[in-house]
Amino acid sequence: MFMSSRPLTTEEISRITGIGSLGKIEERLEELRKEYEGRGFEIVRSPEGWVMEVRSEILPKVSHLARYSDLSGGHKRTLALIAYREPVKQSEIVRVQGNKAYAYIKFLLKKGLVKSEKEGRTRILTLTKEFERYFGEDKERIKEMLEQKAANVEIEARDSETPD
Fold first, then answer.
1. Mind listing the pLDDT tens digit for each residue in 95-104?
2. Residue 44 backbone dihedrals phi, psi, to 5 degrees
3. What is the per-residue pLDDT for 66?
4. DSSP class per residue in 78-145
5. What stretches in the chain show pLDDT beneath 50?
6. Other C-beta atoms lying within 10 Å of the C-beta of residue 43
7. CB atoms within 10 A of CB 122
8. Which domains are seen in the chain, by residue range?
9. Tell me: the pLDDT tens digits for 126-152?
10. Are 114 and 105 in contact (CB under 8 A)?
């Protein structure tokens, strides 16, 4: 759970640990939850599954140490656009984000998260294996999550426009 970038279901934990009894897993997770009480971490059961996370009252003191803290919101948006539309022309990213996208792309290239190939007067941007390692997910899985998020946003926007 500590290494996972998302909550894990009891079934996933069963597969990972090799413990076949879901009841035993839930029992052990409850024991661990109690064991971690009063410490910096907590084990939480959410609707999506089990997660180990830093206690909320401690988070402001350590959040700068977290993964991805080296990426600004602009970097993350740029990566999301590249992942969603890959392969994508740099000019298209600039059209969506404005001229500040050049700096974001330069930073992402330096970190090795994206690669760039010249094509005519623009560049074609794609994700790298380092992107997958950095985020701990296959880029196709990340693209699926982005597509689902985009669909949810569309539905929410449509629902908010519909009069009661």
1. 999 999 999 9
2. -125, 140
3. 62
4. HHHHHHHH-SEEHHHHHHHH-THHHHHHHHHHHHTSEEEEEETTEEEEEE-HHHHHHHTS-HHHHHHH
5. none
6. 19
7. 15
8. 10-64 (1.10.10.10), 67-164 (1.10.10.10)
9. 999 888 877 777 888 888 887 887 777
10. yes
